């Protein structure tokens, strides 16, 4: 199999720390080129990450016929523009989460990729790790009974970094965009359905361009099931998910950020006691790249297609409206 030749649009920390190494460790992909808004930064990163080609503009990379797919780790407000331009250049797209600023933009991105007959994937890397298939299998087995609720938490404290793109309101900053999307997408994945309503209470910080630095919320699903969640960028680190059933629960201590060590195992608690479920030590970024690579080669649908990104943004739109307007928001 010839490997998928990836281009990276930008030198963001997440690209250097996780996604580029993941692609480089994958079976199906190779990072061929990286672009920045200036050639010096692109060359510095290409040397640091052992990438063959550096470009001083995103346009140059998209014009390279040797590039099959691009990863876009740019600030949220730039996702739509560069996804559409990449699609028009015939490149498959892996776009960092959240897919866009709102569901309308996400749909425009989806439609552009469909017109160009290229793949579009939102970079929720955790979903490609076998842990979530294992969790779903346990739920389907009936071991914890009927699911009654889920609780997810993803928080960290970075409030001192005043120039961070996460703290620019017009750029799509805020904790709901940055980390709240994880428990939201996880609940949709595990339950296999869309929520009917959202109620969110948030801390908006004037010191951080009035973005939500902390949010707590509830999403209402069918049959009285709910996701309660917390997300924050001005709170002690936490990264957990619990699924509560009528006969037991599943606790995932490291739900979204995987460190490839013993902390990444999860636990099932029932009347029979507490058992640890061992999880294979795998790079979820490499698994993500391989899923996309296999789909490009085989033509089979992605595990999570572009419509999922639109649906997740639809929920996020409701959450942001609820937080800003301090009211319960129903989703049509």
Automatic annotation (TrEMBL):
<dbReference type="Pfam" id="PF22725">
    <property type="entry name" value="GFO_IDH_MocA_C3"/>
</dbReference>
<dbReference type="InterPro" id="IPR036291">
    <property type="entry name" value="NAD(P)-bd_dom_sf"/>
</dbReference>
<dbReference type="InterPro" id="IPR000683">
    <property type="entry name" value="Gfo/Idh/MocA-like_OxRdtase_N"/>
</dbReference>
<dbReference type="InterPro" id="IPR055170">
    <property type="entry name" value="GFO_IDH_MocA-like_dom"/>
</dbReference>
<protein>
    <submittedName>
        <fullName>Oxidoreductase</fullName>
    </submittedName>
</protein>
<dbReference type="GO" id="GO:0000166">
    <property type="term" value="F:nucleotide binding"/>
</dbReference>
<dbReference type="GO" id="GO:0016491">
    <property type="term" value="F:oxidoreductase activity"/>
</dbReference>
<feature type="domain" description="GFO/IDH/MocA-like oxidoreductase">
    <location>
        <begin position="134"/>
        <end position="250"/>
    </location>
</feature>
<comment type="similarity">
    <text>Belongs to the Gfo/Idh/MocA family.</text>
</comment>
<dbReference type="Pfam" id="PF01408">
    <property type="entry name" value="GFO_IDH_MocA"/>
</dbReference>
<keyword id="KW-0560">Oxidoreductase</keyword>
<dbReference type="InterPro" id="IPR050984">
    <property type="entry name" value="Gfo/Idh/MocA_domain"/>
</dbReference>
<feature type="domain" description="Gfo/Idh/MocA-like oxidoreductase N-terminal">
    <location>
        <begin position="4"/>
        <end position="121"/>
    </location>
</feature>
